[in-house]
Specification:
Oligomer: single chain
Helix content: 55-70%
Number of strands: 0
Structural class: mainly alpha
Order of helices and strands: HHH
Distance between the termini: 42 Å
């Protein structure tokens, strides 16, 4: 069972982490380890940000 407390990250941290996840420099697993987050969380955040960006572009 997971922790009852969830970590809260700043918007800047999230933006930077997603940018790193989208870069071809390292695998998501390596980036997540370096940042101290799970690969699943990093991947989910990148996917969510991508779908938000796509919705924003379509609305414009």
């Amino acid at each position: 069972m997971g922790s009852q407390y969830s970590k809260r990250y700043s918007e800047e941290f999230k933006r930077d982490a997603i940018a790193l996840a989208r870069s071809p420099i390292k695998m998501i697993k390596e980036i997540a380890r370096d940042l101290g987050v799970s690969p699943e969380s990093l991947r989910a955040g990148a996917n969510a940000a991508g779908s938000t960006a796509a919705r924003t572009r379509r609305a414009s």
